[in-house]
Design goal:
9 strands, 2 helices, elongated, signal, Outer membrane protein beta-barrel domain-containing protein, mainly beta, single chain, Beta-barrel_OMP_2
Length: about 230
């Protein structure tokens, strides 16, 4: 079994076990649901390397969070999301500005997050999120311009290649602030996703040995309490 598969499985198991193992401290049963939305800055880690700049995409969906306890000053819980997310890459060659290629890839993503927060029950809190994430490829589109056949030394194998692996997985984490009010909870967060899987086949006979997403996300979330 590959090392990245072992890491992904261990993180998933650890996050899912969080609510069951956190049985010390002041018990709470706070269930909240809501919506989230934001922007992705995408790139792809290719080997051999493909020159690129960050590609902007949208990210948004549903959020559910359960706070299980407060241990001293730390608030502990778990969060899960169901999001539509745009990934991909935008190729950039400074010496050849006439060459342009952009690939947009759509996914349904499910992050499983440990939620650790510090602050007041009513007011401002600082929080950290970390855990595994899985995704399911929906489809893609691309735009291309320029006569790529007239240039040598530029990798183009990725242009006409279809996605081989439609299941994506990796680790994600971030931090942010939450404002807790009577009208609901408002969260602003920055997050990074590092894919452990490749969307192109990466056997010895394949051209790419690495083709994995890297995503910086800025998002806003609104949650309202179903149970306090």
């Amino acid at each position: 079994m590959k090392l990245k598969t072992i890491i992904g499985t261990a993180l998933l198991a650890g996050t899912c076990a969080l609510p069951a193992s956190a049985q010390i401290g002041e018990q709470r049963h706070n269930l909240s649901v809501g919506i989230n939305g934001g922007i992705n800055l995408n790139s792809v880690s290719f080997s051999p390397r493909v020159r690129q700049s960050n590609l902007m995409g949208i990210n948004g969906g549903l959020t559910a969070r359960y706070i299980s306890e407060k241990y001293f000053s730390m608030i502990c819980g778990a969060q899960i999301e169901l999001n539509f997310s745009q990934h991909g890459w935008d190729e950039f060659y400074q010496d050849y500005p006439e060459l342009q290629y952009t690939r947009k890839m759509n996914y349904i993503e499910i992050p499983f997050l440990a939620h650790l927060a510090f602050g007041k029950d009513r007011g401002l809190q600082f929080f950290v999120h970390a855990g595994p994430q899985i995704g399911f490829f929906l489809g893609d589109s691309y735009t291309i311009s320029g006569d790529w056949d007239n240039y040598t030394g530029i990798t183009v194998e990725q242009h006409d290649k279809a996605v081989d692996n439609k299941f994506d997985y990796g680790i994600t984490g971030g931090a942010g602030v939450e404002l807790r009010t009577k009208a609901g909870n408002f969260l602003v967060e920055g997050r990074y996703y590092y894919a452990l899987s490749d969307f192109y086949s990466s056997t010895k006979k394949d051209y790419f040995s690495r083709s994995a997403h890297g995503v910086i996300t800025a998002k806003i979330t609104y949650l309202f309490d179903l149970r306090k």
